[in-house]
Amino acid sequence: MAEVEFEQVHKAFGGHTVIPALDLQVRDGELLVLLGPSGCGKSTLLRLLAGLEAATGGEIRIGGRAVNRLGPRERNIAMVFQNYALYPHKTVRGNLEFPLRMRGMRRGERDRRVAEAARALGLDAVLDKRPAELSGGQRQRVAMGRAIVREPDVFLMDEPLSNLDARLRVQIRAEIGALQRRIGVTTLYVTHDQVEAMTLGDRVAVMRDGVIQQIGPPAALYEHPANLFVAGFLGSPAMNLFEPAFEQRDGARWMQLGGDWIRLPEGVPQQIRYAGLRPEAFAAGEAEGEGSITLRGEVKAVESLGHERIVYLGTEDRMVEPVPDGIGTSEGLLAARLTDGPMPSLGETMTLCANAGNIHWFAEDGTAIEAVDQ
Amino acid sequence: MNRWPRTRAALAYALLLAFTLLFVAPVLFMLVGSLKPDDLVLAEAGTLRAFFPDTISLDNYRAVFERVPFGLYLASSLIINGLIVGLGLLVNAFAGYALARLRWWGREAMLALVLAVLVIPFEAIAIPLFYQLSWIGWRDDWLVQAIPFVANPLAIFLFYSFFLGLPRELEEAARVDGAGVLRTFFVIVVPNAKPAFASVAIVLFLFHWGMYLWPLLMTTSEAVRPLPLGIANFHTLPPLQWGDIMAFGVLMVLPVLILFVVFQRWFVRGVASTGVKG
Amino acid sequence: MRDEGVVHERIRSGAPVNRPNRSPEASAAWLLMTPALAGLLLFMLLPFGLAVVLSFTNLRMGSPLPLEFVGLANYTLAFTDTGLTRALLNNLLFALVVVPVQTALGLALALLLNRQLAGRAVFRTLFFLPVVFPLSLVAVVWVLIFAPGPDGLLNAALGLLTFGGWEPRDFLNDPFWALPAVMLTSIWQGVGFQMVVLLAGLQAIPRQLYEAAAVDGASRWRQFLHVTLPGLRNPLIFVVIVTTILSFRVFDQVRIMTRGGPQDASNTVIHEMVRTAFDQGHVAMGAAMSVVFFLVILGIALVQRRLLRQRGEVS
Predict the structure, then answer these.
(1) pLDDT tens digits for range A273-286
(2) At what angle do helices A136-148 and A166-183 cross, to 10 degrees?
C-alpha cells in the first residue's frame, strides 16, 4: 500500500510528445480513474508507472520511493491488461502463482495465496483449466486474481472491462469496486467509459492530450466541470454548449439565447463567452418568471427509453463543441432529457425552458467561470 | 465450389493419378531396385519388373554396410544436423527475439545486417570461407561442417516475424509479474512459439541434411563425412552396383521420411512459412 | 537478475533518477544477439569480404608465385578464358525453362488440391515427398533413370509411349540432352515446394471473394483471372524468385550427373567456380566468379523487393 506521485513527468516517443509535464498525486488506498478519449495519454501514464515505458523526464514515486530507474519487477505493482494477457500455456493455477514464483515464494505459502484468491474470485472449480477453456468473465477474474495474489503496493487496470458484454461489464464492475474497497490497495484505473469512471472512482482525473484537465470526485466533476472539455466529455448526451451573443444595456448584461434577449443576473462575470446546459436542465413548456429562459426548435429525433425520453432539436442558436485544437462550431443538435409531457412528433416545433441558474459559464479559452451565488 | 459436376471430379482424379505416377515412379524405382539383385536393376529397368520384382532380398542392404562405412556416414549426418538444428534454434531465436521485442541501440543496424546477409548465397562464400578456415587449420571434422551454419539469417528472420506477431501484453504481464528479460523469454515466449520453433527446425534440417558442396570441400576422412558425400562416393566406387546404391539411397532418406511422416503438418507449414513473408 | 541489483546501487549512490533506465534490457539484447552476430560476421560477412579481396589477386593453390594484386584481370579473363560465360548462359536457359514449367506445374497441382477431395492429404504428401529427398540422392536415382540404351527406364518408357518409335539415347552424355535432363531432375525434386506455398496462398484467399464473384456472374475462368491470380500475387512472386535464385545455384545435380559435360553443355556457374577454384586450384579466379554470382543473385533479390513493394503501395 502506498501513495503514488507523478512530478513533472514528461514522455515523448521519438520527437512526438505524448505527456508534456504531468503532476498527479494518488492517495494511499484510493481508486483513481484516469478518464479520457483514446490517445489522450492515459494508458501511457499507466505504462510509465508500471515501468513498461521509460519516462523522458520528471519523477515517478511509489510510496515516496523514486522508481524511474527500476524495472517493472522491482516496483511491486500488479497490472490487469485490457485483453487480460493470461499465459495461454499455463493453467489458471499456473497463471495465478506465476507472480509468486517470480518472487521466489515457497510452495506452501504460494498454494495458500492461490487458494485464497481463487476462493475470493470464485475460481476454485477452474483452477486446472487453461485460459482458452474459460468464459470471458472467468478470464477477467483470473486476470484480477493474478493481480491480487501478490498483495502489491499499487494495482493498475487498463480498460479491464472493455472485452466483456454489457451485462457482465456491470457485474464485474461492481465486483472490482467491492474488491478494491475490501483490500484497500491504491488503484489506478484507465478507461474511456464515463459510466465506469463515475461509478468506480473515488476520484476521477479527466485527461486530454497528455494533460489532466480536472481531478476530483465524480459528482464534483459532473456538477462543476472545470472547462468546456470536461463539460462536453462527461454526461450522455453531452452538455449543450452555446456561443450566444452578448450585449451591455440598461446597466445590465444581456445574452441572446433561443431568439430572446435574456437579462443576466448580477453575479455573472464579465468575461463569459460560452454557456452550457445539461440535457436534464430542460423542461417542456414556456418559461415562467424571472431567471428562466425559453428555447424553441424543430424536433429532429426522439429517443424514448421508457422512463425518460431524449429529444433532439435543431435551433437557431450557435452551438459549439470541444475539438482537438480548442473549441469549434458544432453541427450537433440540442439534446433535452424529459421525463414528462406529451410525446413530441418529428418536425413539430417544441418549446423548452430552463432555469438560468443551471447554466455553466465558460470563458473564451474554455475554462469554467463560477457564477457568484446571489 | 460445393457442387461441381461428376465429370470434373473424374477429370481431376485422372490428372492427380497421372501426376502421382510421375512423382512416385522414381521413388518406387529406387525402393524396388534396392531389393533386387544388382545385375537385375539395370537389366530390368526398361520393363515392368522395374516396379514389380519377382525376387526380393535384403542383400543390397547388407552390402551397403559391408562395402562402405554407412554407419559412420549416418552418425556424421546426425551429429552435424543435430548441432545445426539444436544450436541454430537457440541462437537464431535469441537474435530474432532481441530484434523483434527489445529496445536497444543498435537494433536497427542489426536488423539491416540480417536482411542484407539474407541475400548472400552460401555458394558465393564457399571458397573464401574454405580458405579462411583452412588458414587457421580448422577442417575435416564435424564442427566445421556445423558451426558456420548455426547463425542463419533466414531463421532469424522467421523468428523475428513470428515474435512480432505474438501479443506483446503477455511479455509485459510477465515483466510486471516480476520476470526479467531472459526469464520472460524462456518461460513465456518460448512455450508460445512452438510453431515457429518447429518450422525453423524443419527448414534448417531440410536445408542441411542434403548438404553436399561444403563437406565436399572441407572433409577428407570418411569418418566425418555425411551421407550425401557417402552416396556420391558410393556412386563412383567400382564395381558400380546399382542395387547397393539404391539401398544406400533408401537408408539415407529414411530418417527424413520418418520425420516427415510424423511431423508432416509442420514440414508443410515450415516450408510454406518461408514464403509467407516473401 | 544480477544487473538489476546494480541499478539499486546506482540509485542509492545518488545517480540522476530522471534518465530512463534501459540498461538491463539493452544488455540482455546484446547478450541474445551476440552469438548470431558472431556467426554472421565470421562465416558470412568476413568470407564475403575476402571473396572480393581475393578476386583482385593472383592466388592459386600451391603456387610459388608471390601474392599480388592483379586488378580486374580475373574478371575479364573469367568471361573470356573460362567456362563462365557458357555456364551463365546455361543457368539462364535453366531458369527460363524451369521457372515457368515448375511454377505452372506447382500452380496446377495446388489448384487440383484446393478443393473438397477424398485423399487430398495423400496426394499432397506424395507430391511433396521429393522435396525432402537430398539432391545428391535424387541425382543418383535419376542417373539410373536416364541410363543409356533401350533398357534405360526413361528410354524404355518413351519407347513404349511411341510404340517403338523412340530412338534410345545416352541422355547425360548427349550435348543436347544433358542440360534438359538436369532440368527435369530439378523440376521433379522442387515442384512440391511450389505447390505447398501456392496451396497455402490459395487457402488464404477469402471464400467470400469467390462467392461475390459468382453472384456477380463471373465464370470459373474469370474467377481464376480476377480473384485467384491477384490473390496469389505475393506467393507467386515469391516462388518465382526463389526458383530463379535456385536456378543459378544449381550444383549438386550437375556435379553428380554430368560433371558439367559433355563439353560444358550442362556446366553451371557454381560448378565452374568449384572446378576453377578446387579442381584447378585457381582460387582467385573462383573468388571472382563468386562475386559475379553474388551480383546476379543480388539483382534478382532487388527485383523481388521492387515487385513486393509495388504491391505495398497499391494496397
Answers:
(1) 898 999 999 988 88
(2) 20
